[in-house]
Structures are given as C-alpha cells and as structure tokens.
Amino acid sequence: MGASSSKEWAAAAHGSSSKLQQQQNASLSDLSHLLRAATRTNKTQCDAAPPPLPPIATPDDIKSSSSTPPPPPPSSSTPEPPPAAQASDQSSTTTSTVAAPPPPSSPTDSIEEIASSVSDISNPGPYEHAPMDAKRLVTLDTFDGCRIDINKQLSPFMAVVHSFWLGTAMIPDGRNKTYTFLTQVADENGLLMARVDPERQSVDGRIHRALLGGLVNAKVQVGVSAEGQSDQLLADVDFGGMTWTGNLKYGSMGGGLVFGCNYLQSVTSRLALGGEGMYIAANQNLLSNYTLRYTMDAPSDDSLEDYSSSSAAGPPGAPPSEAKPTSTIIANYNSAQTLLSLNYKRVVTPKRVTLGAELQCSPASLDSQVLLGAEFNLTRSKLGLCIDGSGRIQSLLEAKLGMDAGSPTLNFSAELDHGKNVMRFGYGLNIGG
Fold first, then answer.
1. Residue 421 region, left (φ>0) first, then alpha (ψ -120 to 50), else beta?
2. Rounded-to-integer distance, Cα 275 and Cα 331, Å
3. DSSP states of 158-218
4. Of 299, 304, 367, 310, nearest in space to 339 by CA
5. What pairs with residue 412 in β-bridges?
6. How many CA atoms lie within 13 A of 350 on its CB side?
7. What is the DSSP letter of 78?
8. How far apart are CA 248 and CA 282, in angstroms?
9. d(Cα 369, Cα 389) in Å, to the nearest integer?
10. Which residues, other chains included, contact 194 with Cβ-Cβ below 8 Å and sequence gap of 6+?
11. How far apart are the C-alpha atoms of 284 and 287, rounded to whole Å?
12. 118, 108 contact by CB (below 8 A)
C-alpha cells in the first residue's frame, strides 16, 4: 500500500517537472523571436531619415490645445507605433490645430449692393430725375443753323469746351450767333464748372461736392450777368437712404429768397412716390407738385425675349429690368398751374428701340396736348423722332464718324410745324466729346 503511493507521487512529480521544462523552453523561444524583431526594427529606424521636428507651439496653440479634449488611450490589442510614427502623428495633430483661418471676405463698397442684399427695394434716385427718362423721348433738343462743340481734355481731371452757334433764330435776346467757353474740373469727390458768354457778359458756375463719405452731396449754383436781372445764387443739399432721397434748397432767385424741399420714396420695387414744395419770396408764391412712378415688365413674344437675353442683356450682374422689355408710367401734378402730366415709356428692345408718350391736360380749362416720341439706337448712330397733336414734327440724328471713344459726332436736326408754317433745319459737329 505504501509502495504504490510512493510510485504515484514520483510519477506526478516527474510529470510536473516535464511540463515546467516545456513552458520554460516556449518562453525562451518567444523571447528569442522578440529580440530578433526588435533588432530588425532598430536597424530599420537607424537607416531611415530622422522625423521632422514638430512646430513650436504659440500661446494661442497652447490655449486651443488645452481646450481640446485629449484623444482616448489606445486599446491593449493595438501595438504601439514606432517613434517616427508618433512624431508624424504629433506633427499632423499640431498642424491641424494651428491651421490658418479662411481669408476674410472683401467688404462691399457699393451702397446699391448692400441695399439689394437687405431688400429688393432700391434707391429711387433724385426727385428731379424721376420724369426725365420718359420726358426726353418727347422733348428733343432740336436747333437751327450751325452748332459746333470742340472738347479738349487737358488732364485726367480738367476739360474745356468751345461752343459756337451760328445762323440761328432761337436765341431769346434776338442774337443770331453766340460763343461760350466752358471749363470743368472733376474728381471722385465732386466737380467745379464755369461757363462764360463774352458777348452777353455773363458767367454761370456750379460746384458739386460729396460730404460725409458720400452720404450728402452739396451743390452751389451761381449766375451773374451785366444786366443783373437774372442773377441767382442757389444752394442744394442732397441726401438719402437705401429706399429714399431728399433735397433742401435755399438761395436768391429773381430778386427774392427761395426755400424748397423735395422727397422721393420707393414704396415697392416698382412704385415710387414723392413731392416737392418751393416758396418764392419775390412774389410770395408757394409752388408744389407731386410725382408717381410705376415700372412693370412689358409683355413680349418668345423671340424678342431670346434676343433681349442674348444680345441686349448688358453687362453681367445687371438688374433684370435692364435686360427685359419694361414699361414705365409717370404721373405729375403741378398745383400752381393746375396741370396734370402723364408720361409713358416702353422699352421694346433694350438699348435698341424705346417708345414714349406724354399727355398734358388742365382740369380747370380742359385744355390738353399729346406728344409721341421714339428713339432708335444703332451701332454708330441714334435717331430720335417726336410728333405732337398740332402736327409739329421733330427729328434729331446723331452719327458717329468712328468706332473709337471720342470720335467726332455729326448731328442733323429738323423741325416742321405745319400749323404755323415754320421749318427749321440745322447741322452740328461735336469733336472730342
């Protein structure tokens, strides 16, 4: 019994020693494999180029890196990267942390662009210019005789004009010829202009100046002559916002003081309303008039729309109203004369064909007058036509004699009044204009 127990204990001890020796041999084998791998890794790292140094962190980088939470620790199953990989990861992390911010957007200098970004209602422009675009179609600047204008640019800021008008019967004081000398100095902030008539011994001058960074435009108008009856001094101040404009006037005209103001407001993108008031101290009259302007898209066929969008669209970024046929209605009422004027302008083909009409009527006397006008713009010429209800016909042709800027312009003017049996013809030449 004792002998068998001793044999079993010896066999168990022998088995345990054998298992322990096998485990030691396996551990030595694994250790030798690890030493060989480490030797190869060290040799490869020594032969490779040294890793780049990480950039020096600035105080802002330290602040940003401190505010950024640290990355999670690697799992036990993932082997640690070699030192080169750690340096590369650290360099990329630092580079991504101190990446340069995007460049700031350029500031918008145009008031029109700022206004369009806030609202689609644009500035209506000065009150005096509200009916001008439609009235010019029915009020042509016709003349008789020979008229020559010679323009000379003395510098980028200064220009002079010599004007001759010979053989005319349209001067109010009865003269049949006249000569005027005009000079102008202009820059980005304003202009100075003076006109001298040696024969009449008169001088007219204008001063325009932008103030407060262009928010206010100040204007001074002066006129003196040898007679002294038409001398005047008038000061204007123009100001406005994104959707409105205003004006204040003060001066002396006709031997008395003059006070005036006007206001024009864009109610919608198509409708503008305004009014003007003026007090003349010489005759103690209070004058007032009111204006309404409405613009709408004109109906047109598909072929005209295709032509307008392709050949007459204008420069890129132009408002849609400039590239499409439009219609404009302007109503003006003058309370002093009790005169109501209705103007209609139709852009048939942008920058090519424009039609206009005007109806003037007096509600008190029921007198009325109608005028029709048209303007045709060609490549090197422009033709204007106008006819009124009494049968008077006016025409004005302007032809460019060259394709370059500043080429001479030849003008032909004609006026036929069949009711009064009056015919006037004239030609003119504009050099350097």
1. left
2. 11
3. EEEEEEEEES-S--TTS-SEEEEEEEEEEETTEEEEEEEETTTTEEEEEEEEEEGGGTEEE
4. 367
5. 397, 427
6. 24
7. S
8. 19
9. 6
10. 182, 183, 184, 203, 204, 205, 206
11. 10
12. no
* 291 CB-contact burial (10 Å; exposed 0-12 / middle 13-18 / buried 19+): buried
Token digits for 219?
């204007």
Confidence of residue 152 (pLDDT cuts 50, 70, 90): very high
* C-alpha–C-alpha distance, residues 362 and 261, integer Å: 25
Q: What are phi and psi of 417, to 5 degrees?
A: -115, 95
The two three-digit tokens of residue 51, written as one number: 């890793």
String of b and e for 258-269 (b: at least 16 CB within 10 Å)?
bebbbebbbeee
70: amino acid identity, one letter: P
Q: What is the pLDDT of residue 172?
A: 84
Instruction: Give the list of residues 6+ apart from residue 1 with CB closer than 8 angstroms, or none.
Output: none
Residue whose C-alpha is closest to residue 266's, from 288, 248, 247, 246: 246
Check: CB of residue 140 under 8 Å from CB of residue 384: yes
C-alpha separations of 300 from 247, 308, 351 in Å = 38, 10, 16
Instruction: Say whether pLDDT at 77 is over 90.
Output: no
Alpha-carbon gap, residue 226 to 231, rounded angstroms: 9
CB 275 within 8 A of CB 261: no
Q: What is the pTM of this model?
A: 0.66
**Angle subtended by helix axes 83-97 and 59-67, to nearest 10:** 100
* CA distance linking residue 398 with residue 165, whole number of Å: 17
**Residue with token string 């140094």:** 53
pLDDT digits (tens, 9 = 90+) for 267-297: 999 999 999 999 998 888 899 999 999 999 8
Q: What is the DSSP letter of 30?
A: H
Question: Does the pLDDT value for residue 394 go beyond 90?
Answer: yes
> How far is it between the farthest Cα atoms of the chain?
163
Start-to-end CA distance of the chain, whole Å, equals 139
The size of the chain, in residues, is 433
Mean pLDDT, residues 229-246: 91
Q: What is the mean pLDDT of residues 308-327?
A: 54
> What pLDDT score does 419 carry?
84
**Closest listed residue to residue 332, CA positions, set 262, 254, 234:** 262
Torsion of CA 83, 88, 94, 99, to 10 degrees: 180
Q: Is the distance from CB of 419 to CB of 390 less than 8 angstroms?
A: yes
Per-residue pLDDT at 51 exceeds 60: no
For the chain, count helices (H), then strands (E). 7, 19
Which structure tokens are listed for 260?
């005036």
